[in-house]
Amino acid sequence: MDVIGEAAAQLSRRIEGGGTPEADWLGWPGLAAARRLSLNEWLPQGVRLVVVAPHPDDEVLACGGLLASHTARGGACLVVAVTDGEASHAGSSTLTPADLARTRRVESSEGLQTLGLRRGDIARFGLPDGRVERNLSKLVSGLHLVLQPTDVVVSTWRLDGHPDHEATGRAVATVCARTGCRFMEAPVWMWHWAEPGDPRLPWHRLMGFDLDETALAAKRQALAAHASQLAPRDGIEAWPVLGPTILDRVARRTEFFFA
Ligand SMILES: [Zn+2]
Q1: Which of 76, 116, 196, 215 is deepest in the core (most CB within 10 A)?
Q2: Which domain holds residue 40?
Q3: What is the pLDDT of residues 18-53, one digit of tens each?
Q4: SS3 string of the chain?
């Protein structure tokens, strides 16, 4: 628990409303003060970057710029898609979960090609969206099959607020502790529910990776491939899954990790 912070575990972490505006984060000196590491410090030349994404698009939101920067210098990458994200339009009369899973697999593949990954650089586990916690042992055993001790692994923060994100983060932490992989936890939904400077969050562990123009452009283009998440959801909600505050965050010039 020390890595993620006992105090943060007491927070409600509810994901609701429009989320904390990006201007609030950018105006908070704590972000500018967070230590920056270079690409070589995050990922020594020659290591493989493995990103374990609970849902298609989380790999882009968490570290699309880091993926693009690593592939640009010939670095090996693997994205583990834990679920196909088939629950994002629950209740839709026009899109079945099977339609959505198919669509989102295509969207994630297109997005990853934009980031420089090859077709074979993705492992799809196909666990049920919204029920990762109940399938934790399957996730842990699947990760044991793909992770190598020298990998650097990124996944969602263990206290990110979304149940699938938290369960995935815990599974990855467990397997990394056993295999010796370095684990970087990316906050994704935390930026939505948290307040800048909240003393209960482990800001002292937050470190950044600054994106160059090419990486930032690739990240934004990769997110654009996730069209199902960017359009209003017919008959469900008038707003998309990825709303304006999230799109503002994707334009951020730094990606942050609890390390
Ligand atoms: Zn997600």
Answers
A1: 215
A2: 19-258
A3: 899 999 999 999 999 999 999 999 999 899 999 999
A4: CCCCCHHHHCCCCCCCCCCCCHHHHHCCHHHHHCEECCHHHHCCCCCCEEEEECCCCHHHHHHHHHHHHHHHCCCCEEEEEEECCCCCCCCCCCCCHHHHHHHHHHHHHHHHHHCCCCCCCEEEEEECCCCCHHHHHHHHHHHHHHCCCCCEEEEECCCCCCHHHHHHHHHHHHHHHHHCCEEEEECCCHHHHCCCCCCCCCHHHEEEEECCHHHHHHHHHHHHCCHHHHCCECCCECCCCCCHHHHHHHCCCEEEEEC
